[in-house]
DNA sequence: AACGGCAGCAACCGCCTTTCG
DNA sequence: ACGAAAGGCGGTTGCTGCCGT
C-alpha cells in the first residue's frame, strides 16, 4: 500500500534543476523577508521545494555575493594549502575563499585537482606507499595540465538572474584571451609537495 | 556526419550536529 | 533533561555539452 503521511495538502515536491521562475520567486521572497527558516520559507514563498533545496540554491547560486567563474591561481593555491591542512572540510575551506561555496570548491577539487593527483601518481611511480600523509587524502604532483583551460565553459545554460541588482558578483565569464591564466600548476604542485 | 566516451557542474541523499520546545 | 526538527556538511549521482574517433 502506499503509505501517505497525508499532510492534507500533500505538497508534490519538485526536484531537479531550478527554473528561472523558481529562482525569481526565491530571490524575491528572500529580498522581502530575509533568509532562514527554510522549510516555512519554502512554503510561504509558494515553492514546491524542500527547505533544504531552497537553502542550497540560495547559498550556492543565487546569493548576491556568490562568486562564480574561474578559480584564480591564487584561489587554487589556497585551496590546495587548506586541503592539505584540513582534508575534505569543504565548508571550512570555503570560509577562506570569499564568494566561493563549499560545493564549488568540492567540485573543483574532484574534477580538476584530484584527477591530476591520480595521474601524477601513475607518473611518479606511485605505488601504494605515500610516504607522506596517507591519512586523509593524497596529494602528489601533477602532470598533464594542457587541456585545462581555466575558463572553459564558465556559465552555460541559464545563467544566474541577470536582473540581480547586486550583480557585481556575477562576473562575465569570457575566457577569451584570459587564458594567460596558464597557471603554473607545476609550481603550485611543487609548493604543495613541500608540505 | 554520426556515435561514443569523457568532463564538469548542479542538485540530491543521508548522516551528523545544533537548536528549540 | 529529553526528543524532535532544522540546519549543515560531505559524498554521490544524473544531466548536459564537448571532443575525439
Question: What does this protein look like?
Answer:
- The structure is a single chain.
- The chain has seven helices and no strands.
- The chain is an all-alpha fold.
- The protein has two domains: 43 residues, Homeodomain-like (Arc Repressor Mutant, subunit A); 111 residues, Orthogonal Bundle (Arc Repressor Mutant, subunit A), CATH 1.10.10.
- The chain is elongated and about 55 Å long.
- The chain starts with 19 loop residues before the first helix and ends with a helix.
- The N terminus and C terminus are likely disordered.
- It binds a DNA duplex (21 and 21 nucleotides) through helix 3 and helix 6.
- Its main location: nucleus.
- It is found in: Nucleus.
Order of helices and strands: HHHHHHH
SSE class: mainly alpha
> How many distinct beta strands?
0
Provide mean pLDDT, rounded.
Answer: 69
Please compute the radius of gyration using only Cα atoms: 20 Å
CATH superfamily of the largest domain: Homeodomain-like
Tell me the overall shape: elongated
Q: Looking at CATH, which topology of the largest domain would you report?
A: Arc Repressor Mutant, subunit A
Distance linking N and C termini: 58 Å
Q: Tell me roughly what share of residues is in helical segments.
A: 40-55%
Largest sheet: none
Residue fraction in strands: under 5%
Key words describing this protein structure:
195 residues, mainly alpha, Arc Repressor Mutant, subunit A, 2 domains, 7 helices, 43% helix, 0% strand, elongated, disordered N terminus, disordered C terminus, DNA-binding, nucleus, repeat, EOBI/EOBII-like_plant, DNA-binding transcription factor activity, Myb-related protein
Amino acid at each position: 500500500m502506499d503509505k501517505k503521511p497525508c499532510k492534507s495538502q500533500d505538497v508534490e515536491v519538485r526536484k531537479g534543476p531550478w527554473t528561472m521562475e523558481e529562482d525569481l520567486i526565491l530571490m524575491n521572497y528572500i529580498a522581502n523577508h530575509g533568509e532562514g527558516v527554510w522549510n516555512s520559507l519554502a512554503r510561504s514563498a509558494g515553492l514546491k521545494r524542500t527547505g533544504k533545496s531552497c537553502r542550497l540554491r540560495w547559498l550556492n547560486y543565487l546569493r548576491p555575493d556568490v562568486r562564480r567563474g574561474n578559480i584564480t591561481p591564487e584561489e587554487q593555491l589556497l585551496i590546495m594549502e587548506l586541503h592539505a591542512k584540513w582534508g575534505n572540510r569543504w565548508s571550512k575551506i570555503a570560509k577562506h575563499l570569499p564568494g566561493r561555496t563549499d560545493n564549488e570548491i568540492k567540485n573543483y577539487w574532484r574534477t580538476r585537482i584530484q584527477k591530476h593527483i591520480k595521474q601524477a601518481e601513475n607518473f611518479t611511480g606511485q605505488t601504494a606507499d605515500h610516504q607522506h600523509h596517507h591519512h586523509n587524502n593524497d596529494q602528489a604532483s601533477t602532470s598533464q595540465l594542457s587541456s585545462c583551460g581555466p575558463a572553459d565553459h564558465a556559465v552555460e545554460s541559464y545563467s544566474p538572474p541577470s536582473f540581480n541588482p547586486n550583480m557585481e558578483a556575477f562576473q562575465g565569464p569570457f575566457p577569451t584571451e584570459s587564458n594567460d591564466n596558464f597557471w603554473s600548476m607545476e609550481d603550485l604542485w611543487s609548493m604543495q609537495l613541500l608540505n
